[in-house]
Write a structure and sequence with these properties.
This protein folds into 2 domains: 154 residues; 208 residues, MetI-like (MetI-like fold, Orthogonal Bundle), CATH 1.10.3720.10. Helix 1 packs antiparallel against helix 4 and helix 4 packs antiparallel against helix 5. With 385 residues, the protein is mainly alpha-helical. The longest helix has 36 residues. Helix content is 75%, strand content 0%. The protein has 14 helices and no strands.
Length: 385
């Protein structure tokens, strides 16, 4: 027999101890008590689950639970986590806060362990089902848990808004400021980042092909590119504003500088990744340099190119936002952050940060989807049978 789950054992122990600790002005009664007991009860079958005999081998890998049992365990863990989260938030709403609410904070620590197991069981079920929806839900649920922790900690310890506003306050400002934030998104993302990203990545790729074709350029261009990439953005941005003005052109120029060198290095490395056997095969076919580049070397370089594209998608957004700190029309995420800090409107600053984070994540995810469709043959995307 397998040993009992130590994580859930700690959760159950801490959860029971939390019932006997003070909660400040709140008490373990009514709905909070019922929901917390429901969370403890839901964890008991999971705690005892390892006592079952190990199932047979599946897929040639390690021992895994049958899909149906794994789904039940994931559902139990998720239900217990939701019940526990609701119980603690009801206590918080009833007045449990500060250092006097030891039961609340111990319960929050215990609930973190249950959420850990819930996400782990959910990921195991998703792997067994090979479900993209479950694979997407797990990181989303983890993100929601982090937001929940943020909300409880900021409210429970009465953190001043100017230091760290709760997510609920940020979300309220986000929805009330959607027209303004939408204009900022268009200015920063579409007008500044996208043109600079396309120009920088395109120039880096073409220069990489040229360096590959004329090897002596490696000794001259690469050191210069390395020097340019090492320049601090806070020093480049005001110079670009002086050269190209306050509109999107100066921000795009900063983005070009930031994205050029990563694409250049990745292109050179990718074009050199073709194996000796493949090179000999192309020579056997009497292929020209252009044919070898088109039919073999670019295919081998695709994983390297997409790595640079993904890295540059976040670098470009950072560059565009920072460049807006040094002069811009009265629009843009960088301008909004700078103006919000000056007015001590910290919730609006965080709302802008959320928009920037979601935009960068969406850009990265879109490139990753394209990469998966074009480089499905690569070893990193192969599924084990």
């Amino acid at each position: 027999m397998n040993r009992l789950d130590p994580v859930l054992a700690v959760f159950l122990a801490l959860g029971l101890v939390a019932l006997g600790l003070p909660l400040g002005e709140a008490h373990w009664t009514g709905w909070p008590l019922a929901l917390w007991l429901l969370a403890l009860i839901a964890a008991v079958p999971l705690f005892l689950a390892p006592l079952r005999p190990s199932p047979p081998l599946r897929g040639g890998g390690g021992r895994v639970l049958p899909v149906a049992v794994t789904a039940i365990e994931a559902a139990l863990a998720l239900a217990g986590s939701l019940a526990g989260a609701a119980a603690l938030y009801l206590l918080l709403d009833a007045g449990a806060a500060g250092a006097e609410a030891a039961g609340l904070w111990l319960g929050l620590l215990a609930l973190t362990l249950l959420v850990w197991r819930a996400l782990e069981r959910g990921a195991a079920w998703g792997e067994a089902m090979r479900s993209p929806a479950v694979d997407l839900a797990i990181p989303l649920l983890f993100g929601l848990w982090l937001l929940y922790l943020w909300q409880v900690l900021t409210e429970g310890f009465a953190v001043p808004v100017v230091l760290l506003p709760p997510p609920s306050r940020i979300a309220a400002v986000l929805f009330t400021s959607l027209p303004v934030l939408g204009e900022d998104f268009v200015q920063t993302f579409l007008k500044s980042m996208v043109p600079g990203y396309l120009i920088g990545c395109g120039a880096g790729f073409l220069t990489g092909v040229l360096v590959d074709r004329v090897p002596f350029l490696q000794r001259g261009l690469l050191p210069i590119g390395n020097l340019v990439s090492a320049l601090p953005i806070v020093g480049i941005a005001p110079i670009m504003v002086m050269w190209f003005g306050f509109d999107w052109q100066s921000k795009a120029a900063v983005v070009v500088i930031m994205t050029f060198f990563p694409m250049l290095v990745s292109t050179i490395a990718g074009l050199g990744a073709l194996g000796r056997i493949e090179r000999d095969l192309m020579r056997t076919y009497a292929a020209s340099y252009g044919q070898t580049l088109r039919f073999a070397r670019l295919q081998a370089a695709l994983p390297f190119l997409f790595t640079a594209l993904k890295v540059n998608s976040t670098l470009a957004l950072i560059g565009a936002i920072v460049a807006e700190f040094f002069g811009t029309p009265i629009q843009g995420m960088g301008f909004r952050i700078s103006a919000g800090v000056g007015r001590m409107d910290i919730p609006l600053v965080w709302a802008t940060i959320w928009v920037a984070a979601l935009s960068g994540s969406a850009a990265y995810g879109g490139i990753a989807l394209i990469e998966r469709s074009l480089t499905f043959w690569h070893a990193s995307f192969r599924k084990q049978s």
